[in-house]
Amino acid sequence: MKRMCQRYALIAGALAVLAAGCGGKKALPQRDAQSYFDEARGELEQKRCLKAAELFQRVVINFPGSVLADDAQFGVGEAKLCAKDYTEAVFEYQRLIDEYPNSPLAAEGRYKIAVCYAEQSGGIYLDQTETRKAIAEYQRFIDDYPDSRQVPEARKEMLKLKSKLAAKDARIAEDYLKWGYPESARIYYQRILDAYGDTPWAEDARLGLAVVKARKGEIDAALTDLRQLLSDGVSATTRKRAQEQIEEIEKKRETSRKDFGPKPGATGRPPGGGVRPGS
């Protein structure tokens, strides 16, 4: 009996020590949405993109009802853009628009989707799928948010991207002319005028179409178009090229007249003034 009491005493003492030890530790403070958000923003400012994305996502997942939820969702997109993970960035910005359509950040999210596609746009010798997507998204942004302060910048970026597509078509047209296929060249020059008429390449396309007409023997029409181009106040470079084309066409036409016209002294009548022998 005495031994059992001693055993209980030892157990009670051990529990008391354990309780005292646990009671001496401070409980970890519960983090709120603001603390995660502030840390995420700091990480993003330091270009620690993946860490920032993780922290922003904690706000979105753990505090869906927070006033910071839409800001955090936008932050996830920004962090993915920072990491140059453009596919994921587009997904996150679109998620912002879908889940928080009334957010003040929805407009910028739409704008950033266009930016993501534009960042993936390659040179004129590469596939231009991303370029076309970027143009479409910039136009969608302008249509959806016409009063946004970013509309002028969107128009500027669109023009740059459309100029890239026009430059690609112009290069293809030039190659077709070089290879002796003026009709194929005409198709690409006309497409520049129809689709990218607001770019600087429109002048080049008009000049190219005039050259195509000259190559096809439509000399008068070609000269008319070139002279019209000169009168329209085009750039100095285009003016010079148009003038050179006019001079070249007129020179060739004069040469052709000399080659196929009557020879000097020829009357077009039989020798002897048209009097036949024996008449």
TrEMBL record:
Biased composition (Gly residues): 270-279
Keyword Signal assigned: yes
Location of the Outer membrane lipoprotein BamD-like domain: 31-205
Biased composition (Basic and acidic residues): 241-261
Superkingdom field: Bacteria
Residues covered by region (Disordered): 236-279
Gene3D superfamilies reported for this sequence: Tetratricopeptide repeat domain (1.25.40.10)
Keyword Signal part of the UniProt annotation: yes
Annotated signal sequence range: 1-19
UniProt cross-references to Pfam families, sorted A to Z: YfiO
Swiss-Prot/TrEMBL keywords: Cell outer membrane, Membrane, Signal
Record's protein name: Outer membrane lipoprotein BamD-like domain-containing protein
Organism: Handelsmanbacteria sp. (strain RIFCSPLOWO2_12_FULL_64_10)
